[in-house]
Amino acid sequence: MKKVVIIGGGISGLCSAYYLLKEGYEVTLLEKKDLSEGASVVNAGYNTPRHIIPLAAPGMVNQGLKWMWKSTSPFYIKPRWNLEFFDWAWKFKKSSTKAHVERSIPVLKEISLKSNILYEEILETVDFDTHYRKDGLLTVFQTEKAKKTEIEKGKMIQSENLDVEVLSKNEVLDMQPVLDEKILGAVYYKCDAHSTPGDFISRFGDWLTKNGADLIFNEEVIELIRKGNDLVSVKTSSRNYEADLFVLAAGSWSPQLTKTLGLKIPIQGGKGYSMDVYRETGITLPAILAESKVAVTPMDGFTRFAGTMEFSGNNDIIRKERVGAIAKAAKDYYKNIELTMEEMDNARSGLRPVSPDGLPFIGKTSRYNNLIIAAGHAMIGWSLGAVTGKLVSQIATGRKPSVNLYPFRPDRFF
């Protein structure tokens, strides 16, 4: 039986473990913390074919420059001298073109739709129940500027044969009476679904363990050991783990490890925040609050308010002004909803691994025979977890990948 070591216990790592188990591999998964933290747990829980426009798009650089000096803005860069970030930012700027967006839309659409199908197949296969709803998602706007932008975006996504509808103010309020009268309308993405990430991750981890995977927590990988064009082991603070195959799914920490192999995988951690409200809010549909870029999700037993993209290095520092901006958006868009100090004090953060072009890195590099990289999924990591795991297993077994992997090749920036 072939051995595989998977580095990273987020959704991509767990789904890789699932599919490699099914292929007969002896699976060891190493996670530097446990399954209760990180971007795969604190995210908005969207399974979202809607998200087919990459982050690297025309106008993003200029918008980012306007926002970057305001610590409460949806997009924030903490000023710091960091050559790797400067290199990433330059690559992001070069990727932010109309041509790149046009190339990326069909690619992201295909991989997202396949991931949703695979996610539902996983739920049918495992022997546990978890919260998963196909209720769609509203993008709600309050200003004429946002209305124009969101309707144009909605019609473009609709032209890709995804189920999208533009709703008037009254139609939205009929669906979600808890929304404030200040709204002007919404775009309704009927194609989207949502789930409760923390619950799924926890139950999935238990299922993998029961079915033969060895999940090892609080074990941080510090070096990848190579011999020629092959990896032979990974080194942690306590021991070495040998294997035939290695999968790097360590999110924002992946570049630290590829650096030990002479590989530069340009990923920056984009910090997001979330707060959970365990009281009745009246919110029954997921929503993106357009002007503030805040995501709202009714989950299993609570409502989650999440958002912001903060580039400040790989850390878990909670910045109160950014938490306050999310809380303000909740109050501005909904009637009688105001987050308490306790709810804000319990805010959590996670680092989205952001590539310069908004596309994940999935596949082998040209330099190593037995290393598969699965990282850089940015804001759609939860959506793409299932298909990423499937692709990892197809690469491992030499089968034809179910999507064209060329746009996701890890060495495209070498």
Helical content stands at 25-40%
Strand residues, percent:
25-35%
The end-to-end span amounts to 34 Å
- Structural class comes to alpha/beta
Write down the CATH topology.
FAD/NAD(P)-binding domain
Second rung of CATH, namely the architecture: 3-Layer(bba) Sandwich
Number of E-state strands: 21
Largest sheet: 9 strands, mixed
Organism: Salinimicrobium marinum
Keywords: Oxidoreductase
Domain FAD dependent oxidoreductase: 3-394
InterPro entries: FAD-dep_OxRdtase (IPR006076), FAD/NAD-bd_sf (IPR036188)
How would you describe the overall organization of this protein?
Keywords: Oxidoreductase. InterPro entries: FAD-dep_OxRdtase, FAD/NAD-bd_sf. Residues 3-394 form the FAD dependent oxidoreductase domain. GO terms for molecular function: oxidoreductase activity. It holds the Pfam family DAO. The chain has 414 residues and is of the alpha/beta class. It has a single domain, classed as FAD/NAD(P)-binding domain, CATH 3.50.50.60. It contains 12 helices and 21 strands. The chain has helices at residues 11-22, 39-42, 60-67, 83-95, 98-125, 144-158, 169-175, 197-210, 254-258, 320-333, 341-345, 381-397, and strands at 3-7, 26-31, 46-47, 75-77, 132-133, 137-141, 164-168, 185-189, 193-195, 214-217, 221-227, 230-236, 240-242, 245-248, 268-277, 287-289, 294-299, 302-311, 348-354, 361-364, 371-375. Strands 4, 6, 7, 8, 15, 16, 17, 18 and 19 form a 9-stranded mixed β-sheet that branches. It has a 6-stranded mixed β-sheet with strand order 10-2-1-14-21-20, covered by helices on one side. Helix 1 runs parallel beside helix 8, helix 1 runs parallel beside helix 12 (381-397) and helix 5 packs across helix 12. The radius of gyration is 21 Å and the shape is globular. The mean pLDDT is 95.
